[in-house]
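TA notes. Do not distribute before section.
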Amino acid sequence: MDEETLIGYHGTSKCNCRDIIKNGFKASRAQEGHWLGTGVYFYENIYYAIEWGIIRFLFGNNNYDIYREKCSVIKGILNCKKYEVLDLNDPLGYEIYQEILKNIQERFPNTIEKINNGKDVEIIRLLEEVESKTGENYISMFDVITADYPKNIYNKKSENIWGNFLPCIQKQICVKNDNVIEKYEEVDIDKENGQTYFQVITKNREEYKNEKQSRIVKKTARENKKYSRRYN
């Protein structure tokens, strides 16, 4: 991956976009949605960058014009030449990651249970905490970490309305060294088929939400029926 140049998309608000273009990116800390630790996050597919803006800034509003008014997508050129890249989808990269975890567990036995039972975001947050306490670099020795994660999109056409999803893959790119970001600019959403992506995203999310709510209503009705039979 030494010679690879990546294209990444960063979803954000209009206000944040102006600040980023003027002052540069600020690293996000590990939290839900930021699986790979502290860094600047990009998606390989613009779909997920648009979806991120919808989730964070529209609060259920499905109007494309309002999305364009409130949200932006920044396109980054990530030059990975001469930088350390950990690709968790690559067998070698994943083996390196496992060796890091094994080393941590041997040196700090109190981390064994958390690492064995934790999600990626929890494990990497733990590694960063160990780094902060020891002054040593484990996950932070890498300039870029990438990984694919499954993203479930509800398939309305399926007969199995409760459990059948279209499996999609979102590639997240976490840039820990800003020097990797060679160039970045705000995307003209309309020229990137933004309206089509927006319609697909909102349609899928609305269908999933409606079916989920229907399932909850039916489950509640069944439970109430059992309760009624028991006490009447």
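Switch to the second chain here.
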Amino acid sequence: MAILTKDEAQALLKKILSYSKADECQVNLSGTNAGNIRYARNSVSTSGSRSQTNIVVASAFGKKLGVASINELDDASLEKVVRRSEELAQLAPENPEYVPFLGPQTYKDSIAFVPATAAITPKLRADAVAQSLQVAKDSKLIAAGFLQDANGFAAMINSKGLFAYNTATNVNFSITMRTEDGKGSGYATRGYNDITKLDTAAATKIAADKGLKSATAQAIEPGKYTVILEPAAAAVLIENIF
């Protein structure tokens, strides 16, 4: 699926909104292209790609709200999803905590989209994994990892005059390295919106180092200890707190 431009997305959203008969209506449109490659026991096991588009329509009559979604873009389907959201709204009980949709807003331009990441090919994924596997072979360790990337857009419009549009890319890599006897295991993960910042070999070397050192790990007595967390571990901890 081609990523819709701001003008293309706005034109499609206006068409969908034109079918509305509700007091208030909001339409969200999103599209994603994604690819991945997975490996285990030092060899690639699967690879694939997917492309999807999704439309979500929210219709309100007073404080009654109905939501419906669809992934078809022909005119009949677009009108059908609007009618369905309106039918669900009429059947819904009033929500005493209903908040009206926002009016027009001003948003800064996004910096979340990197063309190099959107242009990732199957060969680039394979080459990145080959670098990781070479580290595993050189270290005499067993590797299992996953590399995935995506690029897409999201847009919304409502009957109050709000319109928003954004594009984004991301690439995520995770790797586990184990010793042949299974006593040692090391892990590393990386995530960026810019593929040029990803170094799979460097991340794999960190996982390999932990795998080798953990093979001789020893038990310690329960107690309070000062520990230093890697950036990825700290980030996940903060995410859970939020």
